[in-house]
Amino acid sequence: MDIDLILRVYPHFLKAALVTVELSVLTVLLGLVCGAAAAAARLSRFAILRFIGAAYVSLMRGIPALIFLFLLYFGGPQIGIQLTAFQAGVIGLGINIGAYMTETMRGAIISVDHGQAEAARTLGLSQFQSFRKVILPQAMRLMIRPLGVNINAQIKGTALVAAISVVELTYTAQRYIGSTYKPFEMFFLAGILYLIIITVTGKMISFLDRRVRLP
Amino acid sequence: MGLDFSVVPSYADALFLGVLWTIAITIVSALLSFFGGILFAVIALYGPWMIRLPFRFFAWLFMGTPLLLQLFLIYFGLVELGIDLPAFVAGVIGLGLHFAVYNSELIQTAILAVDKGQMEAARTLGLSRTQALIRVVIPQAVRDVIPPIGNNMIALLKDSALVSVIGVSELTLSAQLAIGRTYRPFEFYAAAAVLYYIINLGMEAVLRRIERRTQLSR
């Protein structure tokens, strides 16, 4: 283990880790928006919305995220979509993780006991009110933990943008492996930083989960 | 530059070959990750502590880092150690090990969940601890986690696209080679997406059959 080398290059890795954090936050936010919209579509009364939601989930979960990212970044200009690598990374990965989050959210919503909606309706709440005030708060509790699993996967998933040359942790590790021929040191350094990001995020999610958990 | 899908059919052979390689890589890595997962689970649960503890540390490291980073480690790390493997082998080892760690987590939980009476009964019948584990406990544990392992294998198929980055020729790299000649990225990545989608559907059908065959009728 070449400690001198690690001490020399670690500031670059720290800077790259911030880009990974930035990518993770932005892709997860976009994923949550896409997931909520598609989950609503999948639970809609209208068959056409249900079909669109189901098609989105099936397509995004059926193709590799890397291919979707390449399609957007390299193929985008052909259909008039010009994006920087960073923008393409956020949009491509956000739309992709959104499909997985859709299923998580939908699963949580449909697992709230049916009697809850019936009781709310009996008490005179409209369908929207019963969803907003009765079903959703209960579903939110159920979805935090599984969404945490999605988010954990997405933090690691941001590494894909290294393939379109966004300078984040994996790309930085790859560059330094190429220039120093020290694969183990560089892997160790990047790996520790990923583990820190993932562990801190995991702690935040379990804190949130405990806060809303019913006794 | 508009879209022109008429260039795709002239590369049909190359894409088809890419499909075959993707399927081959997926099957070999899936088998490696399945048996590796069982082995890792046994080590993590029953290994002597000098092996068990470092092993758990590496499992934690592998579960917390991206596959792409691990592929770079394996590809360049093996070269560093003087082992010059073809990219295909490095890709299969990377994918196989990565998913073996995830499968191992599932199998460990399942082994601990197998009724203690099974081990006791097997020991009473005269089997050694190892025999009882291999012939009685592990088969039941593995059967219980076939569906989630199947989900991991679907993820493996999609992640097999990543090995194109270390130069393994499969579907993604085939598409990239065609793009290099024609400068038509949208058409060929879209074609690759359709082909991946079809392989994915096929794989889901196969997994459903395996699930039906291995689950007990309850």
Automatic annotation (TrEMBL), chain A:
GO molecular function: transmembrane transporter activity
Annotated ranges, domain ABC transmembrane type-1: 17-205
InterPro entries per UniProt: AA_ABC_transptr_permease_3TM, ArtM/GltK/GlnP/TcyL/YhdX-like, MetI-like, MetI-like_sf
Endpoints of the signal sequence: none
Membrane topology summary: Multi-pass membrane protein
UniProt cross-references to CDD domains, sorted A to Z: TM_PBP2
Keyword Ribonucleoprotein: no
Transmembrane segments: 16-39, 51-73, 79-101, 147-167, 187-208
Keywords from the UniProt entry: Amino-acid transport, Cell membrane, Membrane, Transmembrane, Transmembrane helix, Transport
UniProt entry tagged with the keyword Methyltransferase: no
GO biological process, one term: amino acid transport
Single GO cellular component term: ATP-binding cassette (ABC) transporter complex
Subcellular location as annotated: Cell inner membrane; Cell membrane
Superkingdom per UniProt: Bacteria
The protein's role, per its UniProt record: Part of the binding-protein-dependent transport system for glutamine; probably responsible for the translocation of the substrate across the membrane.
Family membership noted in the UniProt record: Belongs to the binding-protein-dependent transport system permease family. HisMQ subfamily.
UniProt xrefs under PANTHER family: GLUTAMINE TRANSPORT SYSTEM PERMEASE PROTEIN GLNP, MEMBRANE COMPONENT OF AMINO ACID ABC TRANSPORTER
Designated name of the protein: Nickel transporter
Lineage summary: Bacteria, Pseudomonadati, Pseudomonadota, Alphaproteobacteria, Rhodobacterales
From TrEMBL, chain B:
A molecular function (GO) term: transmembrane transporter activity
Database matches in Pfam families: BPD_transp_1
GO biological process: amino acid transport
InterPro entries cross-referenced by the UniProt entry: AA_ABC_transptr_permease_3TM, ArtM/GltK/GlnP/TcyL/YhdX-like, MetI-like, MetI-like_sf
Residues covered by the ABC transmembrane type-1 domain: 19-207
Subcellular localization, as worded in the UniProt entry: Cell inner membrane; Cell membrane
CDD domains: TM_PBP2
Ranges annotated as spanning the membrane: 20-45, 57-79, 85-102, 161-180, 186-207
Keywords noted in UniProt: Amino-acid transport, Cell membrane, Membrane, Transmembrane, Transmembrane helix, Transport
PROSITE patterns cross-referenced by the UniProt entry: ABC_TM1
One GO location term (cellular component): ATP-binding cassette (ABC) transporter complex
Membrane-topology descriptor: Multi-pass membrane protein
Family of the protein in this entry: Belongs to the binding-protein-dependent transport system permease family. HisMQ subfamily.
NCBIfam families, A to Z: HEQRo_perm_3TM
PANTHER family: L-CYSTINE TRANSPORT SYSTEM PERMEASE PROTEIN TCYL, MEMBRANE COMPONENT OF AMINO ACID ABC TRANSPORTER
Record-given protein name: Amino acid ABC transporter permease
Organism annotation: Pseudodonghicola xiamenensis
